[in-house]
Amino acid sequence: MVVSLACVACLCLVVVVRGDPCLIISEINADNPRLDTTEFVELYHTSGQRSSLDGYTLVFFNGNGNIAYKVLDLKGHSTDDRGFFLVGSVDMLPKPAILLPPNTVQNGPDAIVLYHTSASRYNEKMNVTAFGMVDAVVYMTRRTGGAEFLAETLTPGEPAFVEDESTLEGDESIERCLLSEDRWGFQVSSPSPGQRNNCTPPAAPATIPVITELKLGGGQVDGFVELTEAPAAGPLALVVLDGRTDRVSVSVDVNLETSRNGLISVNIEKSFMKGDDSGAVAIYSGRAVDFPLGSPLSQIQPLDAFVFAGPGNKPSANLTETLIPGREPYQLSNSLREGGYYLSRCGVATWARDPGVFWEAPQTPAQPNQCPWPKICPHSMVTPGGTDSPPHLPPWGNSDFLINELNTDTPGAAEDGEYIELWHPSGRRVSLQGIWILLFSAHNNKPYREISLSGHYTTSKGYFLLGSDRLVPAPSLRLPPNTIQNGPDAVALYRSPYGPPSASQRGIPTKGLMDAVVYRQRGSDKEAQDLSKALTPGQLPLLEDPEVLPGDEALSRCRGLYPYDLSAFSVAPPTPLRENICPRPPPAPEGVVISEVASSHWTNHNQQRSFVELHGPPRTDLRGLVLSVFDQEHSGTVIAMPLTGSVDDDGLYVVGNVTGAGYITEHDQCF
C-alpha cells in the first residue's frame, strides 16, 4: 500500500546519552534449578569497550538482617572488549573473571550493590548503606518477600524485583532493560551471561495493534509505518496529523491482508514536510472516511500513537495530551539525513502510546526489531567523601508529595484557569520521577487522564503546577483548557515507577497511592461513593463552592498535612505557586488542659497503654487546638495532630490507642 504522507520528515532524531559512560549491574541469576551451580552477576560498561574496574567494589547484602555476606574488591580487573564482566559459579560458561563456589549468591530477599570509593570502607557483616553507591539491584522471590528496608535504602521509590521462577521453563535471570526514554527497569528472561540482554518488548494483545517501526522520510525518500496484526480489533485507519494545525494530513485504511509474520507495513511515498515541523501518526479503530483530510483532531482515543516534535516547533498541548497523555513527544534534531531515519520499538515498558520506547535502529520489515544497547546510565553516582544532606522534613513526619491546591471550576465557558498544585513537605527542589496524577470520573470510576510527571521537578520551594496552557503563572505541565472535570470526580497522586497505576491494578488503583481529593458539585455528593470509598474512605467529597467568594475560588490545603484527609481543605482564593491564603481559624477554646499522660516508654512495659487525657468545660469544641508530642531523641516534634470533636459531658477527651478515646492515633510508639 502506497500513500502520500505529507507530515513525516527526513530528520535526525536525538538519542540521548546521559553524561559519561558508566558501569552498571546488567544481569543477575541468583536462583538456578536444583543446585545453584550457574549463578552469576554481570556488569557492563556502557561505553561498550574495555574499561578498568579499579576503585569498584561489589557487595552482596542479606535481606535477613540487612548486612553484607560477600564483598568483592574489583581492583586489577577490567571489562572485556565489549564492556562485559562476569562474577559467577565455577561451572559457568563462559568462564567468569571472578569464580564463586556454588550456591554463593543468595536467592532473596537480598541486594547486590556496586560501589565506587575506597574498598576499605566495605566488609562482611557491614550494614547496608547507599554511600558511594553507583548501582544497586534489590530482589526477592514470591515465596519470601521482606526486601522493603533494602529497597527504601538503596532504590527509594522502586520496589524490589521479583525473580519469578515460574516465568520460563528451565532457568531465568533478572535482566536490566530500557523501559522508556532514560528510564531503566528489569524483566525476567533467559540467561545471557557475557551477551547483550534479551530485552524483548512485551507482546501486544490480539485486540490492540501497536506501532513497531517507523521510517521518517523526506524529499524523494519513502517512509513507512509498521504495526502488529490485531484481527480482533476490526478495521483500522492510519492517520497522520499536522503538529501545527492539529488537523488530518493523511488517512488510509490498513490492509490486514498484507500481514507477514504478524506485522503489517504501510508504505509512505515522498514526504515533503519541512525540517522544523512536528506531527503525529495514530492508529484508530474505524475507516479512513471517518478521518477526512483537513478534519480536526478526533477526541476518540487512538489504539496507538507516535508524536514527534520538530526543533523549535513543538506540537500543541492538545495534540500531545490527547494522543499520548502524560508523555513527551519524540524530539527531532536539527540534523537532516538524506536517507531518512529508522525507529524501532525497543523499550520494554508495558504501557502503550509512549514515543519514549522508540530508539534509532536498522529497518527490519516483517522481522523482529534489532534494538541497540542503550548507552545511558541508570543512576547518578554518589560522590565519595560526602552525600547530599537529607531534606528537612516537617514535624508531622510526612515526607512525600501532597495535593496542595485544586481549581477545577473556573468562571466562564473556556475553563482556561484550571490547575492542580502539588507540594513536597521538604520545601525544596525535588524530582518527580515515577510520580503520576490520575484524574477520575465518578460516572464510571475510571481515570480519564493518566499523567506521568517523570522528568519534572518541583520549584525551589517544593511546588509543582500543572494546568491550563493559559494559566498565569505558567504551569510546568500544560493541559488543554477544560481538561479537569468539575465533579463529581477525583484527583489522585501515585508513586508508580514502572508505568501507569491502572496497569498494575484493576478498578480504582490504590497501590502506590500517596494522596487523593474527591470533590463534587452541589447535589452530586452521592455519585462519588465508589471513589470516596477507595481513595478517601469514611469522608464526604469536597464542594468547590462558587458562592463562597466573589470571582474564582480553589480548594486549598489549610488545616493539616496528612494524606487523604479532606478535612484539611478549605474554599479559598486561588494561589498557584504561592502560599495558600486560608480562612482565619476559629478562636482556640479556653479552659482545656492536659490532665493525664501515660507512656510505655516510661515503664518499659510493652502492654502499657499510651494516651493523653485532656480536661475542660463539657462539650467544648476542640477545633483550633493541635496536640504536639516532642521527643528529645528525634530532635523535635514527632506528632502534630489537629484535634477534632469536643470534650464529653464529663469534661474529658482522650487521645491514644485506648478504649473510649475521642481520637485514635497510630503514633502510640512515640508516647
Description:
The chain has 671 residues and is mainly β. The chain folds into four domains: 23-180, Immunoglobulin-like (Sandwich), CATH 2.60.40; 203-360, Immunoglobulin-like; 402-572, no CATH class; 593-670, no CATH class. 4% of the residues lie in helices and 32% in strands. The radius of gyration is 28 Å and the shape is flat. This is LTD domain-containing protein. Keywords: Signal. It comes from Notothenia coriiceps (black rockcod). Residues 1-19 form the signal peptide.
Q: What is the helical fraction, as a range of percent?
A: under 10%
Tell me the count of domains. Answer: 4
How many E-type strands? 38
* Major β-sheet strand ordering: 1-17-14-13-21-22
Number of helices: 5
List the helices and strands and how they pair.
Blueprint: E1 2-4, E2 23-29, E3 40-45, E4 56-62, E5 67-73, E6 84-89, E7 98-100, E8 110-116, E9 133-140, H1 148-154, E10 161-162, E11 173-180, E12 183-189, E13 211-216, E14 223-228, E15 236-242, E16 248-253, E17 263-269, E18 279-285, E19 304-309, H2 317-323, E20 330-331, E21 341-345, E22 358-360, E23 402-407, E24 419-423, E25 435-441, E26 446-452, E27 463-468, E28 477-479, E29 489-495, H3 501-504, E30 513-520, H4 529-535, E31 542-543, E32 554-557, E33 569-572, E34 593-598, H5 600-603, E35 611-615, E36 626-631, E37 636-642, E38 652-656
Protein name: LTD domain-containing protein
Keywords: Signal
Signal peptide: 1-19
